[in-house]
Design brief:
alpha+beta, Thiol Ester Dehydrase, Chain A, six-stranded antiparallel β-sheet, 6 strands
């Protein structure tokens, strides 16, 4: 049993590493997202706040927060439906607190799966652990 678990973890780690490498040339890489942890139904990603992530007030732009939530939830969906194409169908975000520097982290998890849709939630935290934003979204499996 333990050997199978370790094999599954190694396989998942290897596929996540390949996925991470492939993503570097996409919007994911341009923004600067990094995988912290990924497991069945959950993922944690982060990014280091850079000047291009800020708005005119010197705060992390809401679009960066939205992207982080979308990417973290998307990573969970990719793990849940590895051989299928999926798209974000809907997303809702509540912005709770601002951040201007440091590393921001998003934790996402699958909360419901139906035949063609997956529903997830994601929370973004600042360097000090403050909840910056909370969001939910649904992803559609396309055929």
């Amino acid at each position: 049993m333990k050997e199978q678990w370790f094999k599954e973890q190694a396989d998942q780690s290897g596929s996540l590493m390949r996925l991470g490498e492939d993503a570097k040339t996409t919007f994911w890489g341009y923004i600067g997202c990094e995988v912290v942890r990924a497991e069945k139904g959950k993922a944690v990603i982060c990014l280091e706040v850079r000047p291009h992530h800020l708005n005119l007030f010197g705060l992390v732009h809401g679009g960066v927060i939205a992207t982080l939530i979308d990417n973290a939830m998307g990573l969970v969906v990719v793990q849940s439906c590895p051989d299928e194409k999926t798209v974000t169908a809907q997303m809702n975000i509540n912005y709770l607190k601002s951040e201007s520097a440091g590393i921001i982290t998003c934790e996402a998890e699958l909360i419901h799966r139906a035949n063609r849709t997956l529903t997830l939630q994601g929370s973004v935290f600042g360097d000090e652990g403050d909840l910056l934003a909370w969001g939910s979204g649904s992803f559609r499996r396309i055929k």
